[in-house]
Amino acid sequence: MSFLRKSVNLMGSVARRQQHLKVIGGATAARDFSSKPSDDYANFPGAKAPFVSKLNLIQPEDYAPIPIYRVMDQDGYIADESQDPQLGREVVEKMFRDMVLLNTMDKILYESQRQGRISFYMTNFGEEASHIGSAAALEMRDLIYGQYREAGVLVWRGFRIDQFIDQCYGNTDDLGRGKQMPVHYGSRELNFVTISSPLSTQMPQAVGAAYAMKLRPDNDACVVCYFGEGAASEGDAHAAFNFAATLGCPTILFCRNNGFAISTPSHEQYKGDGIAGRGPMGYGITTIRVDGTDVFAVYNAMKAAREYVLKENKPVVFEALAYRVGHHSTSDDSTAYRPAEEIEIWNSVEHPISKLKRYMVHKGWFDETVENEYVKDIRKKVLKQIAVSEKKLKPNWREMFEGVYAEMPDHLIEQRSELEKHIEAHKEHYPLKNFEK
Amino acid sequence: MLRTRLIQAASSAQRAFSTSQKALAAKQMTVRDALNSALDDELARDDRVFILGEEVAQYDGAYKVSRGLWKKYGDKRVIDTPITEMGFAGIAVGAAMAGLRPVCEFMTWNFSMQAIDHIINSAAKTFYMSAGAVNVPIVFRGPNGAASGVAAQHSQCFAAWYAHCPGLKVLSPYDAEDARGLLKSAIRDPDPVVFLENELVYGTAFPVADNVADKDFLVPIGKAKIMRPGKDITLVAHSKAVETSLLAAAELAKKGIEAEVINLRSIRPLDTATIFASVRKTHHLVTVENGWPQHGVGAEICARIMEDQTFFELDAPVWRCAGVDVPMPYAKTLEAHALPRVQDLVEATLKVLGGKVGKAAAANK
């Protein structure tokens, strides 16, 4: 309970007793204790706690906020050398370049939506470190349930530029076969569950998937569920937290707290201590809160969280604090509800890419010319890919009947054959050349 | 929610009923035992199968459908959950996505409205929207439709609601054979299945053939069953309305009218072939359901007939017998009148047959 700012009177004896229990050793001691209720200690099935005779309304202010773990400061210096993850130059360069790739691709695809080339897009600006730092600490066998703003996790896992752009264009090489809006990526190969639009439904599902993993003999994989602080207001979030705790599921509930749920700022979203504040006391879940703009902090914390969930078969609540630099989506203009100067700070000195760049500069790992070339090269690749993806054929139109059931039922087979006949009879009216034969 | 009250109603509704002449000779099985043994078989057959829901484990299920299974299979296969339909339906969908085969019990389907986003937006659509990458082999099951004395919020039929949605399969068993065979098929099916039971028949013992108890006894999804053949009129029904139809057919027989009774078993996919063939024979049709009429199962059958050549086989317009278009009244007498009764079916049949009633009777004499 290191986050207690001060001991309120009624908490005093709990703290003392817990200290005592710790000394004599863990859960067994607690059980022994509860079977022998003493005068000042209650033994209700719903709670074991001391009785007090002084009335006291516990205030939120009685608790100090959960501190934010940080490895690297704004200027890219590591405050406590023991916390340096000691990653080699190659790994750090991949982290940096993946963040740059994501950032560059986002800028161009955002523009391409503005030009009417794709219907929708969501950028990841400002959250690159939480994606890359967390993905780097995981194993490929760990299953990812994303919300929709986790493209960086896919970048780290090797989803290629052409795969991203083909998905946004819904062409014949789109793994989703053109059945979803842009940014609803999914990849079985990369253990990334296809994004689903309804908010927070991924949360109990991720917990369910973690439960399934736990049942496997010698399980060595966990489930990571990403969600925003706004999504955490949905009832699904409560269910996910509660089930993860009660069923003991190896899952990391990763909250990307970027300060905004579309236009709703976090101070209107909740009154408690963020999402981390709900973990230990609210749901009895081990919790960590980190600076989401510090790729090393996210990396270290994620490594520890992964180790913990697999060793203990218990969940972890992980809150990464950052700032959503971009608009919510292409359907939003965030300057209507926040000052441009505020955005600018988070887009410069506080930007995760700038921080990692400064670290690399101190290390002597940063060559301005090489990196500028890299950005140019990525821009070129993305633009070229857009031109290619735009021209690719759409999936065969017959596919619209597929995937409703594992085996196509008769009424759909019938409809498909009617459509085939219709198109055969009126093919001059249909843009058949745009579709795969 | 009136959970305790529901359970009391269930036990008071247990009464033996059989429409078969051979009832005494044949082996008997209650619907509860049929469901319980189907779950037991499938838990034993496939270790990916597990049951979750409120009170399904230690308490043996609110309606005792999972009786003994927790003791037999343990905490990992039969799981009691906190009270959140949205939560455990989501957990079940996730587990199915990850390769398990959950059987998710709703204490009643009325509570599934809390979880409907998971059933429709997630379970029914994920296979399509992931372009076949993620399938959701899951069974959502529980008692559906009007029970007895539990008022409007606990007396709804969800057949039409879920049958509206592509991606789902919707089953509505009537007797023990249906319950056992269809539940086993549902658990083995690769797609999400909505399995609508009827609490009022849980305790009813039905005669069953010997093979129904076989480990691999399956009833195919998407096929209706002719419960009683007849040549004068077709009564098509599902769930407990099959019972009403059989009783009406017995009444009609006294008047010299031979009604064919079809038990739909599966609402989606709908076995139109069996309905059409019957109508081509009888040229008259009455649909029977305990759900509301608008956009109901009967309405769908009418539409399908009009879209088919079978329409020209009809000698009279189709008549729908459905639940009254109001929230279910709590008063006992009103409740009984809000659902199609035997005499309603008899009257509907006589009206549909019109002047031909006497002729049919005369011909049978």
UniProtKB/TrEMBL annotation, chain A:
Signal peptide (from-to): none
Origin superkingdom: Eukaryota
EC numbers for this chain: 1.2.4.4
Annotated ranges, domain Dehydrogenase E1 component: 98-396
One GO cellular component, as annotated: mitochondrial matrix
Transit peptide is among the record's keywords: yes
Keywords: Metal-binding, Mitochondrion, Oxidoreductase, Potassium, Thiamine pyrophosphate, Transit peptide
GO BP of this protein: branched-chain amino acid catabolic process
Cofactor (UniProt): thiamine diphosphate
Catalytic activity annotation: N(6)-[(R)-lipoyl]-L-lysyl-[protein] + 3-methyl-2-oxobutanoate + H(+) = N(6)-[(R)-S(8)-2-methylpropanoyldihydrolipoyl]-L-lysyl-[protein] + CO2
InterPro entries hit by this protein: Alpha-ketoacid_DH_E1_comp, DH_E1, THDP-binding
Gene3D superfamilies tied to this protein: 3.40.50.970
Locations listed in the record: Mitochondrion matrix
Key word Phosphoprotein present: no
Enzyme class: oxidoreductase
Listed GO MF terms: branched-chain 2-oxo acid dehydrogenase activity; metal ion binding
Annotated Pfam families: E1_dh
Family to which this protein belongs: Belongs to the BCKDHA family.
Protein role: The branched-chain alpha-keto dehydrogenase complex catalyzes the overall conversion of alpha-keto acids to acyl-CoA and CO(2). It contains multiple copies of three enzymatic components: branched-chain alpha-keto acid decarboxylase (E1), lipoamide acyltransferase (E2) and lipoamide dehydrogenase (E3).
Protein name: 2-oxoisovalerate dehydrogenase subunit alpha
Lineage: Eukaryota, Metazoa, Ecdysozoa, Arthropoda, Hexapoda
UniProtKB/TrEMBL annotation, chain B:
Necessary cofactors: thiamine diphosphate
EC number from the UniProt entry: 1.2.4.1
Domain Transketolase-like pyrimidine-binding: 29-204
The protein's role, per its UniProt record: The pyruvate dehydrogenase complex catalyzes the overall conversion of pyruvate to acetyl-CoA and CO2.
GO biological process, one term: pyruvate decarboxylation to acetyl-CoA
UniProt catalytic activity: N(6)-[(R)-lipoyl]-L-lysyl-[protein] + pyruvate + H(+) = N(6)-[(R)-S(8)-acetyldihydrolipoyl]-L-lysyl-[protein] + CO2
Family matches, as InterPro entries: PDHB_mito-type (IPR027110), THDP-binding (IPR029061), Transketo_C/PFOR_II (IPR009014), Transketolase-like_Pyr-bd (IPR005475), Transketolase_C (IPR033248)
Phylogenetic lineage: Eukaryota, Metazoa, Ecdysozoa, Arthropoda, Hexapoda
Protein localization: Mitochondrion
Main location: mitochondrion
UniProt cross-references to Pfam families, sorted A to Z: Transket_pyr (PF02779), Transketolase_C (PF02780)
Statement: the UniProt record of this protein carries the keyword Oxidoreductase: yes
Keywords linked to the UniProt accession: Metal-binding, Mitochondrion, Oxidoreductase, Potassium, Pyruvate, Thiamine pyrophosphate, Transit peptide
GO CC annotation: mitochondrion
Organism from which the protein derives: Drosophila mauritiana (Fruit fly)
GO molecular function: metal ion binding; pyruvate dehydrogenase (acetyl-transferring) activity
Protein name, as recorded: Pyruvate dehydrogenase E1 component subunit beta
